[in-house]
Amino acid sequence: MNIHEYQAKDLFGAYGAPIPKGCAVQHKEEFDGAIDEIGSEAIVVKAQIHAGGRGKGVFTDGYKGGVKIAKSREEALAAADAMLGNTLITKQTGEAGKQVRTLYFSEPCDIAHEYYFAILLDRTESKPVIIASTEGGVDIEEVAEKTPEKITRVHIDPLYGIRPYQTRQVAFGLGFSGKQAKQMMELTTALYRLFWEKDASLVEVNPLVLTSEGDVLALDAKVSFDDNALFRHPDIAALRDIHEEDPKEVEASKHGLNYIALDGNIACLVNGAGLAMATMDIIKHYGGNPANFLDVGGGANEDQVTEAFRIILSDPNVEGILVNIFGGIMSCKTIAEGIIAAARNVEITVPLVVRLEGNQVEEGRKRLAETRLPITPAESLSDAARKVVDLASSG
Amino acid sequence: MSVLVDNNTRVVGQGITGKAGSYHACNNIAYGTNYVAAVTPGKGGTTFENSIPVYNTVHEAVEHEGANTSVVFVPPPFAADSILEAIDAGISLIVAITEGIPVRDMQEVKAALQSNNARMIGPNCPGIMTPGQCNIGIMPGYIATPGKVGVVSRSGTLTYEAMYQLTVRGHGQSTCIGIGGDPVCGIGHTEAVQYFNDDPDTDAIIMIGEIGGSAEEEAADYIKNNVRKPVTAFIAGMTAPPGRRMGHAGAIVSGRSGSAKAKVTALEQAGIAVAPTPTEIAETLLSIYRP
To answer: Is B248 assigned a catalytic role?
Structure first.
């Protein structure tokens, strides 16, 4: 689960990591109060959406930039007026953009140098790694490729937790000394505690800055969390912003379906995540474009398939549906009956191709062939993919 | 011979008195798997299916029944604790079926496994099966047949596809290992391939991977340097967009790492025959392996 910058900064603050003074606003009436609270002459106004590239983004009405450094109250109010409620398009939002429902006002700072700092899981080592670099504000992967010597990596043992010598490795690795080294060590400890205690999957600060006054400060904040651990963090779960998610995906998750919207024309409904990905691939292999990823899990019962059909058909780009179920434990006969009942519950307006394999497959295929519903049975997954792509393009 | 589990495996089921656990445990037992005990705290002294003794702790199951392998069906909030209990009781192989265990918990489990020389398959996996001898987890028994091909996979239903394709073509499997789709897991691709390589009764290997992480690339490296048996691979997720988690917690392309394309390239460079589609996994293997 992702959260907004202002929420991440609240968490930073709660854990004692230094951030510029700031205040989030959702209504126009709060603008003046927020500026008063920050108390500086100039104000940074930042649109809060779950996407990167905000500074270079453009709003649908032509207004440029989702991050503005306003020199006066008037400028800040004008920028905030232009952004709030407006829809921002960045390189990460897609063409539709994202509506800005919250703004973050903060105190600007004079930057002497920009750094990069992140904590995430190193899958190869199965432990968290802190990554820090003297090259901040840029694409860290490019730095890793071109100048790997500029990156400090410190692995933390999950059983021992972070140790002072490791925070020193980070601080000195970034070239800090004296007061700044101490600040960096404290920031590292604070953010590691946040990462570990709140089951974060990523804590990223890009840029982390050294101000011209000589202080280390987290200028940006990005935090995402392990969905599997939200059950033990109601405070974090409450930060979820449903507006940032695809409504179809939200609806799917309510029914135990794992759905991800894509931009193709062939929808698929599959049991198992790996097989679902492979089904998307084979659709592409035969010239179609997958409209979604959809894993119905092990069961694939009538209720789930009905709901899945509804969600799939709410996507206007869908021109065909491929159902691919490997009946492992559950019999294909039961699955076929579920699909037929679901197809009756929902008016299927596009070609529907079904491929079943596994337990009692003959009976399952027989049930599909007997029905008078417009279901095209397939012999194999290749056959199914070919058929659905053909039917979609001819329809 | 086979890999990790066989006729001599003595299984203790953790959390198998619940609905899903008992369903799959009964299937395993019907297959002929030797379940010697169940562990459900609070139900000690009763029996499972009228014959298998239930204990309150794994330690008792080890002491009284000689259990050496555990299968975990315990719900996510308590699963890591159950795995740690099994490690502490001296269980040498833990098969963790549970889906949705927090990654933080698994990092602690992983560290405990390493310092105790215990091995784990999973979590979030279909389990492990040596056809004709032992089936632990949720794999359907009928799709497998005893034979010489070792299968290792991150995904459940894709494993079934591969096993089934082999079986209908008359080729059996030595052992099938579903390593699971989580970012932190026990036995990985490389380790599984190593076991198959060392097993005299495994003649060929199928490895099924997916986007995310770099385990397939590491296995490709190992195969290139150590394995002379024919290896076929399939990678799911060619069309997966970056930054989106494709069902499995581990299946996510982040930045430049973990893409299917990079994995396929690494595998091909290691001399592995990569199946172009999931329906051609067995055929691809049989094009380089003639038993």
So the answer is: yes
- Measured CA to CA, the distance from residue B18 to residue B9 in angstroms comes to 23
Taking CB atoms and an 8 Å cutoff, what residues of chain A touch B153? 274
Give A282→chain B minimum CA distance, Å: 6
- Partner-chain contact A260 B244, CB within 8 Å: yes
Whether B39 and B62 have beta carbons less than 8 Å apart is answered as no
Instruction: Give B256's pLDDT tier (boundaries 50, 70, 90).
Output: low
Please state, in angstroms and rounded to a whole number, the distance separating the CA atoms of residues A79 and B107: 45
Contact A323, A352 (CB under 8 A): yes
Asked if A158 lies within 8 A of B108 by C-beta distance, the reply is: yes
Separation in Å, CA of B248 to nearest CA in chain A = 6
Which token pair is A99?
Answer: 């509506």
Work out the burial of residue A212: count CB atoms within 10 Å of its CB; fewer than 13 is exposed, 13-18 middle, 19 or more buried.
exposed
Amino acid found at A289: N
Report the 3 state secondary structure along B5-67: CCCCCCEEEECCCCHHHHHHHHHHHHHCCCEEEEECCCCCCCEECCCEEEECCHHHHHHHHCC
Structure confidence at residue A395 as a pLDDT band (50, 70, 90): low
Three-state secondary-structure class, residue A260: strand
| Residue pair A321/A308 in contact by the 8 Å Cβ criterion | no
CA A363 to chain B, closest CA, distance in angstroms equals: 16
* Integer Cα distance of A108 and A317 in angstroms: 44
Rounded mean pLDDT of chain A? 93
Q: How far apart are CA B109 and CA B242, in angstroms?
A: 29
- B-proximal residues of A, 188-207, CB under 8 Å: 196, 199, 201
Contact B236 A284 (CB under 8 A): no
Verify whether the Cβ–Cβ distance B279 to A381 is below 8 Å: yes
Report which residue type is found at A57. Answer: G
ipTM attached to this prediction: 0.92
**Chain A contact set for B155 (CB, 8 A):** 272-275, 277-278
**First-residue to last-residue Cα distance in chain B:** 18
For residue A332, what pLDDT is reported? 86
Q: How far apart are CA A115 and CA A132, in angstroms?
A: 7
Q: Map A69-104 to HEC letters.
A: EECCHHHHHHHHHHHCCCEEECCCCCCCCEECCCEE
pLDDT in tens, A135-168: 887 778 788 888 888 899 999 999 999 999 999 9
A298:B214 CB<8 A: no
Q: Tokens at residue B265, please?
A: 């390239």
How confident is the model over A195-204, as pLDDT tens digits?
A: 999 999 999 9
Q: Contact A347/A317 with Cβ under 8 angstroms?
A: no
B62 vs B48: CA distance, rounded Å: 17
A365 residue type, one letter: R
| Amino acid letter, B223 | I
